[in-house]
Amino acid sequence: RIFLRLSERIEIDSFTVMHIAASAARDISSAPRSVELLGLGERGALADAISLGTFEYSTKGSPTQRFFVSTDLPADLRRHSFVTVRIRSNHGHPEYTCVYGVGIHGSPASSA
Questions:
Q1: Among the listed residues 90, 76, 83, the one whose alpha carbon sits nearest the alpha carbon of residue 30
Q2: Which end of the chain has less neighbouring CB within 10 Å, N or C?
């Protein structure tokens, strides 16, 4: 899991996951496969987590992939100051998963 405290409360509309390009990697099996974004409660408590979606990172796509949170989820459930990215699986590496970066995108909740 990757825990993030955002600089302010954000109405999240998407996030990005970064890994090295398949053409530059010796072994792409450590790339994430199934990735879940969780919005956490005001104090960052995992017990208060709300799933904002589970997404599939493709080793055949761009090294930086953007995933959009469903607009079917009410706006108030997409507003968070703390999030966690849960790597649910990778592309086959038995020991670890590599993530080169994560980005959270949206609008400040005060203006949303």
A1: 90
A2: N
